[in-house]
Design goal:
Chain A is α/β, with parallel strands linked by helices. Among the domains of chain A are: about 100 residues, Nucleotidyltransferase, domain 5; about 35 residues, no CATH class. Chain A is about 35% helix and about 15% strand. Chain B is of the alpha/beta class and about 220 residues long. In chain B, about 40% of the residues lie in helices and about 15% in strands. Chain B has a five-stranded mixed β-sheet, with helices on one face. The chains are: A alpha/beta (about 210), B alpha/beta (about 220). Chains A and B meet through helix 1, strand 1 and helix 5 of A and helix 1, strand 1, strand 2, strand 5 and helix 6 of B.
Chain lengths: ~210, ~220
């Protein structure tokens, strides 16, 4: 009968009580580390720290029905959005036919991006200069942030500031509206509104957008 | 010349600090990550340079690319109370279990008539439910009622929380209810206009349009 213990097998030449083999106390941590880093990578890549941002917009309160219609003057510009991300614009009042010696309204196209930016800066020249001046003053610590904000809002609401109207036909997509409003914000335009498009404008738009 | 003996170093390095750090980071990310609420539709909002944060308390209208309208409102209790009011108005009975389930739900886009069917669908299956959007046409503008009742309940809730905070001498931490529209960049403008008209008809003129942040030209 084989004895457990001393000299159980061939090749074990030692005699005397067998000691338990000393095991290393080190555990192989590699798989655990692998897993930890895998999880780490997953969470780093999937987590989003920022909540979605928003654009705050105030729509005009509709005037009472018997109120006179506000007149568009030269300082007012209308932007018409239509299909295929196209934008058209005109200045002043809309005229189907030549009136008071002025020619009928013609739409001009403008491309999103630099062209639009240039056009808006050109139209908003007056206010843009004031706001830039205010920004410089803020940078040189001449005025603090609160004063800057107050003055900037005041400048944007200046009675002489041009105002912009956004209208879209039924083929326009929502993104264009946001892009246009965003461009207004970038160009420091404070006076703008989104309103319904008129039938005559749709007709002209369809002709121009061909 | 005698040979220089290099000290033999152990090739096994101690990984414990690294593991500690890795797990610390894992814990941090697990705890800070907030999982997105499952939504019935995927919506890609257009980007803008606006840096305003999304309001915490809001009536949120989601518009999918194909023009379906979805609704949700922040707050478990507010949702339940809003549903009770809607049930009352549309004379549709909901069991208390259904109302409870509705409180846990997020966005939904079905008419009042189909709502109980939608509530009774397993949460995992709701994505496949044929959501037709909440009716917004002028004859049957259910969205208008949802906004009205939700806004009403939201204001009550805000007032209660504020009063409780003031009574306990704490700072008011809740925000007043806001209205937000989250529309897909590719959704037709007409639908957005209809939703905006629904808001303005309810004399709500100020609301938030949700966008993605995109860096603007440097100042």
């Amino acid at each position: 009968m084989a004895e457990l213990g001393a000299g159980a097998g061939p090749g074990h030449g030692k005699k005397g009580p067998v000691r338990a083999k000393k095991q290393s106390t080190r555990v192989d941590m590699t798989p655990m580390v692998d897993l930890a880093f895998l999880l780490l990578t997953f969470f780093v890549l999937t987590s989003t720290f920022s909540k979605p941002k928003t654009m705050e917009i105030t729509f005009p309160v509709p005037p009472p029905i018997d109120a006179p219609k506000p007149k568009m003057n030269v300082n007012g510009h209308t932007f018409l959005l239509t299909k295929d991300n196209r934008v058209f614009w005109y200045s002043g009042e809309f005229k189907d036919v030549p009136k008071n010696g002025l020619p009928a309204t013609k739409l001009e196209e403008v491309k999103f991006g630099e062209d639009l930016n240039k056009l808006l800066l050109d139209k908003n020249d007056l206010i843009e200069k004031i706001v830039l001046d205010l920004k410089k003053k803020r940078l040189s610590k001449e005025i603090d942030d609160t004063t800057y904000k107050k003055l900037a809002v005041e400048a944007k609401g200046d009675p002489k500031a041009p105002f912009f109207v956004i209208k879209a036909d039924d083929k326009a997509v929502y993104r264009n509206l946001i892009d246009l409003i965003d461009e207004f914000n970038i160009c420091n335009i404070g006076k703008y509104a989104v309103t319904d498009i008129m039938l005559s404008e749709i007709n002209l738009l369809n002709q121009s957008a061909k | 010349m005698p040979k220089i003996k290099m000290p033999r170093s152990n090739p096994q390095l101690d990984m414990t600090p690294m593991v500690d750090l890795a797990f610390l980071l894992v814990t941090f990310f697990i705890l800070t990550a907030s999982f997105r609420n499952p939504e019935p539709v995927q919506v890609l909002t257009p980007s803008s340079t606006s840096e305003k944060m999304m309001p915490e308390n809001s009536v949120l209208i989601t518009i999918s690319p194909d023009g379906k309208v979805f609704y949700t409102i922040t707050g478990f209790e507010v949702r339940k109370k809003t549903l009770e009011r809607m049930a009352d108005k549309y004379k549709i009975k909901f069991t208390s279990k259904e109302i409870e389930e509705f409180g846990k739900m997020t966005s939904f886009g079905v008419s009042m008539q189909n709502l109980s069917k939608f509530i009774n669908t397993e949460p995992g299956q709701r994505e496949k439910f044929p959501s037709t959007g909440i009716p917004i046409d002028s004859l049957n503008n259910q969205l208008s009622d949802w906004i009205r009742f939700g806004g009403y309940e939201g204001v009550i809730q805000f007032k209660e929380l504020k009063d409780a905070a003031v009574a306990a001498g704490r700072q008011v931490q809740t925000e007043p209810l806001r209205f937000a529209i989250k529309a897909d960049g590719n959704s037709n403008y007409i639908i957005v206009k209809e939703v905006i008209k629904t808001f303005t008809d309810l004399k709500i003129y100020k609301f938030n349009l949700l966008t993605n942040f995109e860096k603007g030209p440097s100042e």
